[in-house]
Please model this.
Amino acid sequence: MASKLFLITVFILDLIAFLLAVGAEQRRSTAKVVQQGDAHANYSYCLYDSDVATTYGVGALLLLLVTQILIMVASRCFCCGQALSPGGSRACAVFLFLICWVFFIIAEACLLAGSVKNAFHTKYRTIYDIHNPPSCEMVRKGTFAAGAAFILFTTIVSEFYYVNYARARDNFQPLGSGEAGARSRSY
Model:
């Protein structure tokens, strides 16, 4: 059966990643146009607040990556290692393996895109024009939240994947073992 300590460890790491992604959504950078002038011209530029969302987003990205690596190493990436017993557990493990990777890639893409966009701050200055203020690029609301949602989906699916994988692995009986193998040897 699946190791309960392993599942709890992976769940806690995924929970921390989820909380970091939610924190990144709450603390994403916002910008405002600031006007400054001298004797010759007025200038406007973008002033950004805290950049902590980038750190939170990268932290969530790395923790999710670590948990995915842990699950894949423990299950030997589904394709390497001991054979699995045929049946519902193996079929379910195959399906959940694929879904787990899809959710993982979507979560990582959201977190990476949000972190990169949050870290990119336009610092240019323009001559003040009331009709054409500078474009202060910011992370779109919901980017980190989508990453957090897919972290949650990845967590649930990967836990079920590992449980089904472990069940199929533990139920495997090599060819020639058991009652049918004993009968064939008696002839």
